[in-house]
Design brief:
Pfam families: PadR. By secondary structure, the chain is α+β, with helices and mostly antiparallel strands. It has helices at residues 3-8, 11-22, 27-37, 46-58, 81-105, and strands at residues 24-26, 62-69, 72-79. A three-stranded antiparallel sheet has the order 1-3-2.
Length: 112
């Protein structure tokens, strides 16, 4: 299992957390922030990001606002109330999972 595959299972949680912390963002901002926050370890491509955003929108977790900038239409994504609840739920699950992983990978005393 590669480091990349470990992150892929949690990309939705990462995107939701960024939106929760930043009110609204457009796609490129999200990819850039993931790269910056991870010191380049995680590279969220547009090909991976936009299906996540579309699914979040279809599930009512984000709403989209269109804005014209430099003759281009930019889509801004913002969490809905349901999106905030889902983010809280997923972050709690992630914290619980990480606690259990820490216990499981810590040195375990040998049975006598």
């Amino acid at each position: 299992m590669t480091k990349k595959s470990l992150y892929q299972g949690h990309l939705t949680t990462i995107v939701l957390k960024l939106l929760a912390d930043n009110d609204e963002m457009y796609g490129y901002q999200i990819t850039r922030m993931v790269k910056e926050l991870s010191s380049g370890e995680v590279q969220l491509t547009e090909g991976a990001l936009y299906p996540i955003l579309h699914k979040l929108e279809a599930n009512g977790l984000v709403e989209v606002r269109h804005e014209k900038t430099n003759n281009r239409t930019r889509k801004y994504y913002k969490l809905t109330q349901s999106g905030h609840h889902e983010t809280t739920h997923l972050l709690k699950e992630m914290q619980d999972f990480l606690k259990q992983m820490e216990v499981l990978i810590s040195p375990i005393p040998k049975l006598k």
